[in-house]
Fold this protein.
Amino acid sequence: MGLLDSLLGDATPPEPEPEKEPTIEISEAEHEVVFPVAIDRSELLAYKRLIEYDRDTPHSDAALSEPVQDALDDTWKEMVPGDKTRSEEIEATREDAAVIIEAWLDEFTNDTAVIFVPVGTYFHLARLLRVCEARAELDEDPFESTEELLTAAALVSRLKAAEDGDVPSVFAHTGDVPVTRAELRSAS
């Protein structure tokens, strides 16, 4: 027996192992499916300004008489599940978006950051955009379409595209996700 034989052992090739899919076990309670999306700080700041503009600009329904507002709220309650009035729902929509935007802004150390975006996040941000768009289309509402609305719409469009398959999903620890799906569900 030579030196190499004593060091390396038998020179015959090993039997090939049967092919199998590698598996990784992770805790569902501590991980979730997310989409990594590169976001510019300027996009989030534009969305934040849009939230403030929507909040600060009087709504056209504020000038409506109380019976008309009550009728709108009654129609709203028939069409939308839950017990919130239309104005309460709009405020909740605005607050949901603000929570997401603020949490994402906290992730930035430079002008661009990769944010782990949970499934369905784009929907929470798109809801406020729909409210703003509807307001901008009403002649009697002082709300006007702004550059911030267009920037926010472009951001939400990218988030939706990521979720629809343009970006591969990954598993991330919930500690690395600024706003988790559970937090999104509790906000709505």
Observations:
- Residues 93 and 128 are 6 Å apart (CA to CA).
- Residues 28-187 form one domain.
